[in-house]
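hey so i finally got around to running both of the ones u sent me last week. sorry it took forever, my laptop kept dying halfway thru and i had to restart like 3 times lol. anyway pasting them below in the order u listed, first the sequence line then the structure token line for each. didnt double check formatting much so if smth looks off just lmk and ill redo it

first one:
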Amino acid sequence: MDVMESKDGYLVHEINGTTEFKNTVAQTGVDIPGAIVDYALSVIK
């Protein structure tokens, strides 16, 4: 989801149907997909 701030508040201008993390781990050194799964599992336990 892409959100921008406008004079009237926050504006959602794009929501993607699928999420891709193909380059994020190499660029950031953080396993973002793994962190999302870990968080989701911790919430449902």
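and the second one:
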Amino acid sequence: MTFGKTWQALLLGAVSAVAINSASFAADSVTEAPAAAGFNWSGVYVGFGGGVGANVHEVSSPLTAPGFSFNGIGGEGVFGEVTLGYDYMISPRFLIGGLVDAHFGNISTKIDAAPFADVSITEKYGFDVGLRAGYLVTPSTLGYVLGGYAWQKSELEASGGGGDFSFDWDKDGYFLGVGVETVVASNWTLKTEYRYTRFSTANILSEFGAPDGVLDTDTSRHTFSVAANYRFGAQNGGTAAFESPAYSWTGFYVGGNVGAGAAVHELGLGGAASFNGIGGEGAFGELNVGYDHEFGGNWVAGVQLGGRYSGVTSEINFGPGKLNLDADYGFDLLARVGMKLNESTLAYVLGGYSWQHFDLVASGGGSSQSLIDWNAGGFSVGGGLEAAVTNNMTVNLEYRYAQYQSEDFDSSGIFEVTPSSHTVRVGAKYKFN
């Protein structure tokens, strides 16, 4: 694993820790009522933040074979964003709003075969325009869904063989997402957010005059961000506060999550070349058990064991048949440390051991066969926000990056795969008294 990939893996944990520390000046007055009773969620806000993400390109071309498509070619990276938005409370607990944000980053797919060729496809910058609808799970914490229009500038850069060249293209589509936002101090809120973006079909050879359909791509993107919002007029008085749950973070719990994400597998070819990477995407479900302990002040620490079944897959379709690389089931043993942003909301980071089963399956003619399967251990890091909704129940939104050990298929290092994944889950937990 390269230093760059390690840095990407740890980015969210670092950003989350910075966000938590930025709220620590309010730790001495972390009770619910002062933060919530007069907070006005209606009005204009500006925000800034950053995150991590992965994309999956489905490539199709009749020049290869009738019905051929490869879903997918994957990439990963980081990004920053700025946001301008407006929300309006339509009832004591519901709001609607609109937003515009701009992002810039380096989510990219790379082929490294120096000195012959280095090729990268990078998402440089773009913007989203959307609407959101939210529900106050506590007076200080908002859960919301959002969606809208997305536009992106992508660039292909290549070097080697005695020359360099590049070209770019635009693509647009739609995004859908879910998030959690909580009051941390005065006019400031902290949010975590997942977005799935789907772009319309793009002809990446249009720069050379090729007609549509010769080499087309359909791109999807999975991103997770942490951001701070400054809300103008938030202290001017808001809707009437309602009772918050009396939640203790100490105790055993059981929980369940549903989520989605993308895999990016780095393919190594005997040290002569690498391709980052082979992409896949899908949804999953998981169950977990754990224990948390609340320490003096506002700190919480705990451990968790979880198992999952996943539909994250990469697919090559060649007409009469197809190949799927499935990441189908696995488990995680994780530890986490969090800080209460208020009495009912926790920001946390986590990390630990992860195990995953992979299966390469060929299918066609009404039958399927496993060609090769293997197990891989590794690590996960991530973070999220968790909010109490009753005296025993919490809900959370969480991101994880997982990196697994390499699998050498021919025992010579000539053909080696290093799997990784970016996943986001929405979950609920029941804590026993």
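quick thing i noticed on the 2nd:
The chain has a mean pLDDT of 84.
anyway thats it, ttyl
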